[in-house]
Specification:
repeat; cell membrane; about 500 residues; six-stranded mixed sheet; alpha/beta; about 30% helix
Length: about 500
């Protein structure tokens, strides 16, 4: 529904109220799927540098074995989701939701699902040092499972000048349709609380709030029961507003603290982890188990049997669709993620990665397909933007390729939540323009850097040539002087 602004009592600015459509899969318990014939495990599933393959074609690997090692500090490693044979390391055409393709390790499962024998956890994590806990999280390749895929060990490692006083666990799941986090909270609440205790110990703090929107009564009940005897952990039941699950919005909703553009939550004493990430952290610390599977919601009116599935990373989306009884004949669009921030896919060979929260199959009636009209300067998009941006102006500049002027309207602060596009009466696909603008800015930065490098090199060459010319001249002059001195020497 259009022009439906967030009106509930809440703290952050902007936001919208799309129909949550969670009923389709909210009551469906998490199921496992059978192991596919091939897994395509991308080496770049996280923010930061891609991992480097550390196996070769023909290698036999165990479940949980390291197959891609992290490169540099902001990076994460990748592990085998099951035991099997490495068939190759290749550019899988559908290796990324962007459709650009990327390097994947292709693994043929051997059917034994045999864990690596050397994986061990910490026996008594509540008496372990923070460094030991953080190292387990790093080794396990845990990244944020809410979609951002930022390496979790970095969030758990505040600098000395950053004083943390609160951990927030993000159980908001504000994106319509998605229910994987709600099911995790309902079915694995004790494990989440166990993980929170470990994280509080590692961070040396005493205060954790779990934020959950009020449209998840099952999750609220389960988590409330699990935290009953732990006074350090409380629950904040929040009104349903999109995009409350975005980190900065959630912090403002729970604590009232505003995180300005360019700053991180950690600068304001807060660390936020998604509920599924908390579960992955627990498995890493207690058992040494790496992040090799995740829960994915398969939903929408276009799928025959909506479900919440626990799937190995690298499973092609087609396998999830097949498990759910296939697509309906008149399906119009399939999206990875939710309807607000997801990316449409056309090749169902795309594998599930650590950040894949949903597969959404939509019929025409679920979509809003209207022709784009000229902007009428109504300002609805400005009212809806939780980042205090002026979306109409950003789109105008991106559309006219005024790349140099995009920085002035803070395009890079846009979190691509889609709230502005949702309320736009002119049906302008604003987020597409923003993605295009960001790409153009990155390209222009690269071109400028290249130009700068070329000019530095040419200047250096010119300096060198001038120096060599001057040297030559100096030597000639010395020789001339020596010759002249020789000629004037008295003959004895
Ligand atoms: S972009 Fe859309 S919402 Fe924004 S001012 Fe223009 S018409 Fe209104
Ligand atoms: S401009 Fe960006 S952050 Fe603001 S509402 Fe639009 S998509 Fe969201």
């Amino acid at each position: 529904m259009k022009h439906d602004f967030a009106t509930a009592i809440k703290r952050f600015y902007g936001g919208v109220h799309p129909d949550d459509r969670k009923k389709l899969s909210l009551q469906n318990a998490i199921e496992s799927i059978s192991m596919p014939e091939r897994l395509f495990i991308p080496l770049h599933q996280h923010i930061g540098a891609p991992s480097e393959p550390c196996v070769k074609t023909g290698d036999k690997v165990f479940k949980g074995e390291l197959i891609g090692s992290s490169q540099g500090f902001v990076s994460s490693c990748v592990h085998a989701p099951t035991s099997g044979i490495v068939l190759g390391i290749e550019d899988h055409v559908a290796g990324h939701p962007s459709g650009l393709g990327q390097q994947c390790i292709v693994l043929e499962p051997d059917g034994n699902d045999q864990w690596h024998p050397e994986l061990t956890g910490l026996e008594d994590p509540l008496n372990a040092s923070p460094a030991q806990i953080i190292d387990k999280i790093r080794q396990a390749g845990v990244v944020g499972l809410g979609g951002a895929s930022f390496p979790s060990f970095i969030k758990m490692s505040p600098q000395q000048h950053q004083s943390i006083d609160m951990l927030i666990i993000n159980g908001v799941e504000c994106e319509p349709y998605l229910t994987c986090d709600a099911r995790v909270m309902e079915e694995r609440s004790e494990e989440i609380v166990e993980s929170i205790r470990i994280m509080l110990h590692a961070l040396g703090i005493q205060n954790c709030v779990i934020g959950i929107e009020s449209n998840k009564p099952g999750a609220i009940q389960a988590i409330s029961k699990a935290v009953e005897k732990t006074p350090k952990i409380s629950i904040s039941v929040l009104p349903v507003v999109y995009p409350q699950g975005a980190e900065k919005m959630l912090i403002e909703a729970v604590t009232g603290r505003q995180i300005p553009a360019g700053k991180l939550p950690i600068d304001f004493g807060v660390i936020v982890h998604n509920v599924a990430t908390a579960l992955a952290i627990r498995n890493a610390v207690l058992f040494g188990h790496p992040l090799i599977n995740r829960i994915v919601t398969v939903t929408g009116l276009g799928i025959n049997r909506p479900a919440n599935l626990e799937v190995p990373i690298g499973t092609p989306v087609q396998a999830l669709i097949d498990h759910c009884g296939g697509l309906k004949r008149d399906v119009k669009r399939v999206v990875l993620g939710g309807p607000m921030m997801g990316v449409a896919i056309h090749d169902f060979g795309v594998p599930v990665v650590k950040g894949t929260s949903g597969v959404l199959a939509m019929l025409e009636q679920e979509m809003h397909i209207e022709p784009e009209q000229p902007c009428i300067r109504c300002g609805y998009c400005v009212q809806a933007c939780p980042m205090h941006l002026v979306p109409c102006e950003m789109a105008l500049r991106a559309r006219h390729d005024l790349i140099d002027q995009l920085q002035d309207v803070n395009l890079l602060d846009c979190i691509e939540c889609g709230s502005c596009a949702y309320v736009c009466p002119a049906n302008i696909p604003l987020v597409h323009y923003f993605r295009y603008g960001k790409m153009a800015m990155a390209n222009s930065k690269r071109v400028n850097e290249k130009k700068e490098l070329t000019s530095q090199r040419s200047q250096a060459k010119q300096n060198r040539m001038e120096f060599e010319r001057a040297e030559k001249e100096r030597k000639k002059q010395e020789m001339r002087l020596a010759l002249a001195a020789k000629k004037t020497e008295p003959v004895t």
